[in-house]
Amino acid sequence: MKITVIVPTYNEKSKIGLVIDALEKEFRSVNNHQAGILVVDGNSSDGTLDIVREKSKEYSNVELLIEKEKRGLGMAYIEGMNYAMNVLKTDAFIEFDGDFQHDPADVPRLIRELDNGYDYVIGSRYVPGGKIPSAWGLHRKILSRFGSLFVKILLGLKTNDNTSGLKLSRVKNFAEKLPLDGNKILSKRYAYKVHLLYEMAALGAKIKEIPIVFLEREGGVSKSSVKDVIDTLRVACVLFLRKIKRVFGGNAA
Ligand SMILES: Nc1nc2c(ncn2[C@@H]2O[C@H](COP(=O)(O)OP(=O)(O)OP(=O)(O)O)[C@@H](O)[C@H]2O)c(=O)[nH]1
Ligand SMILES: [Mg+2]
Q1: 147 lines ligand 1 (CB under 6 A)
Q2: For 138-157, how does the pLDDT look when each residue is reduced to its tens digit (9 = 90+)?
Q3: Exposure winner among 7, 197, 199, 232, fewest CB in 10 A?
Q4: Residue 14 burial (CB < 10 Å; 0-12/13-18/19+)?
């Protein structure tokens, strides 16, 4: 199968080269599939683009998509997912941060579950063996843990990490049916994750959570903010209302 690791970047010059090298090293153990990397950059100004261009000369399976401007994480992923499916004809894609907070060694583990028949594999911080950075402040730990729990309870999901950024999606019958369109997705920012997870579950995807250790950010600047927490709760509430409308026979929003 063709598998594309989609890596969004915005000013990640201290990390993106290392991320690409480390992913390429992991691909060597994934010899039953054809793996590649698609970097979706929000028009970085710090030299990230030069590094990715160099890497795409070094490795033939590295591609770069440049957005006109930074439009939010959700939009970067949507652009990457559509390109991976329609142009690269990928069979599965992986969402992977460009700041080295995801461990490249988890990529073969995600792919193994695809081989085991799962359609949506989530790198989970909230199953036994999973971890969030110990350096996170108490407020961030609480927001992340309870945010995930809130989403789970409100939307009746079975999964424990509902805001994880590391996941694999099978295209056929699943990702190809997602609302991957700026006008349909409920958030152009981080909360797109909750919308897509909900839709995947609604499509009947076989979902598996595997434990991951979310690493500490060691360079560059975080782009997530408290606005994203509020946005995540908003998206969960909109999805809940849609569900209620459906159950009571109204028109689905
Ligand atoms: N193209 C693009 N990439 C983005 C955008 N926002 C974030 N990214 C990238 O997406 C990845 C995840 O964003 P982060 O800011 O690290 O978010 P986070 O990991 O939840 O937050 P931290 O733990 O504070 O790092 C990083 O590689 C960012 O460079 C965006 O609007 N456009
Ligand atoms: Mg990060």
Answers
A1: no
A2: 988 998 999 999 999 999 99
A3: 199
A4: middle
* Nearest bound ligand to the CA of residue 95: 1
Domains recognised in the chain with CATH numbers: 2-247 (3.90.550.10)
Q: Ligand 1: does its nearest atom lie under 6 Å from the Cβ of 33?
A: no
pLDDT at 250 over 70: no
Task: Of 109, 121, 148, 123, give the one whose Cα is nearest residue 206.
Answer: 121
Q: What is the pLDDT of residue 126?
A: 97
Phi, psi of 78 (to 5 degrees): -60, -45
**Sequence-separated (6 or more) residues with CB below 8 Å from residue 15:** 98, 99, 100, 218, 219, 220
At residue 218, the pLDDT reads 86
* Structure tokens belonging to residue 206: 């076989």
| Rg (the chain; Cα; Å) | 17
Residue 113 CB less than 6 A away from ligand 1: no
Once rounded to an integer, what is the mean pLDDT over residues 85-95? 98
**pLDDT computed for residue 87 by the predictor:** 98
AA identity, residue 10: Y
Closest atom of ligand 1 to CA, residue 41: 1
Give residues with Cβ within 8 angstroms of 91, minimum separation 6.
1, 2, 3, 170, 171, 172
